[in-house]
Amino acid sequence: MTPTVLGGGHETLYGHYLGAREFIGPDKTLGIINIDAHFDMRDDPEPSSGTMFRQILEEDDKAGYMCLGIQEFGNTKALFETAEKFGCEYILEKNLGVNDFKDSFAAIDDFSKRHDYLIMTLCTDSIVASAAPGVSAPSPLGLDPKTVKKHF
Hints:
alpha/beta, Arginase, Chain A, four-stranded parallel sheet, globular
């Protein structure tokens, strides 16, 4: 059985993570693969859709994080530094799919092999704004929805 959580922004992801962690137990490693234009690792005093991945990594030393489709202009230098601090792996939007996705898939495979379980999540702000105009942070240079559907 594969649970599917729909709705909202990533404010639902922390609850999804808690359920997955409870199911797999404290000793298994959990990799989170997120297709997103943003890291969602802000250091804010209150949890939000922009903080949960940092929150998970601060609390869980058996969790890893990979983000696909990161937009350079959509993340501050501090967020790139935070990603580095927490050992996050990411592929910039402009590099995703280079070499007919072979390099991207190799990085995803490598990340996946290092974790016992995976959570995969898609933030629609990673999709080009013309195909996802109603998201909270539209990406004018986002990913093509047909590409995301076909490859991920």
